[in-house]
Amino acid sequence: MTARTEFILLAGFLGSGKTSLLVDWLALPEAAQTAVIVNEAGEIDVDGAIIAESGTIPMAMLANGCVCCSLTNDLVFTIRALVEEREKAGLPPFRRIVLEGSGLSRPGPILRSLAPLAPLNLAVRVVTTCDASQAAEQARHFDEVASQLAAASTIVITKPDLAGTGAAEALAGAINPLATLVLEQDRAARARAAFAPAPPAALPAGPMAPERAHPRVSVLRVAFAPEAGWEDRLDWMEDLAAFCGDRLLRVKGFIRHPGTGATLLVQAVGTLFSPPAPMSGGQDLPEALVVIARDLSAQDLRVVNPAAPVLVAPYRPGKALTCVPG
């Protein structure tokens, strides 16, 4: 079976070290067969020039705009062109295509724009850089920071030599307890861990970072009642996306098919849901969803569909959530 090409969106706020992390990665032997797309919000593509200095790699530029709001058609065209040129050259598919987004990009709209590329069967994920020296303060003023952290499957703490990592860890843990956290002092080890494939993880059971690290972001847990059917589950997730819109940052968890007993992994970045994926050994996994949203509380989500057999509560790792009818 041919391995799927990964599409990795490298996100992170302005100056958080995305380009440095990518250059460190491209210097490693594991980075072979990687293509890079660089988007910079400005007319001078400084990041692209820096990456080009790292060696001979297939690279494309998306300049003079933020890819999340103005260049999505160009992005689809560019990815198709990279794949087609590779095929014409008689080479095997890329192992991965990395898009370095601008520091102002929100991952949700970017990933939604990839819908026309469904036939390519890309394995899509988000890696976000979190600046140890500035992220906590930036998150107070810029919603993009929360959006980028919430969308990530992997969060990389950068610039640990400039400041202690405690504030960045607390921010990352409070906004996205679902992500794999990379804490490495060595730059090569940090890059290797950042781009290593992250296997689907169970819902975290450890202690949660202090609450209110980002006052506008809520981490909520959803459970389904025993009488909930398959359509109840699907309808509620569809209603959730419609109700929240751009306020929905991330969804991850497990649902169980009442008919077959199969456990399926559910993931969404923004309102873009991936098809539920079967989990081996799923009978040992709890059925629950973690929802990360902006400016929405558990009470707000309870009115998504008041008649639905679900319970929404603030997320508490290790706490069972039982949905009692009525």
From TrEMBL:
The keyword Magnesium does not apply. The keyword Nucleotide-binding applies. Residues 8-171 form the CobW/HypB/UreG nucleotide-binding domain. Residues 234-302 form the CobW C-terminal domain. Keywords: Chaperone, Hydrolase, Nucleotide-binding. It catalyses: GTP + H2O = GDP + phosphate + H(+). Zinc chaperone that directly transfers zinc cofactor to target proteins, thereby activating them. Zinc is transferred from the CXCC motif in the GTPase domain to the zinc binding site in target proteins in a process requiring GTP hydrolysis. Belongs to the SIMIBI class G3E GTPase family. ZNG1 subfamily. This is GTP-binding protein. It comes from Pseudoroseomonas ludipueritiae.
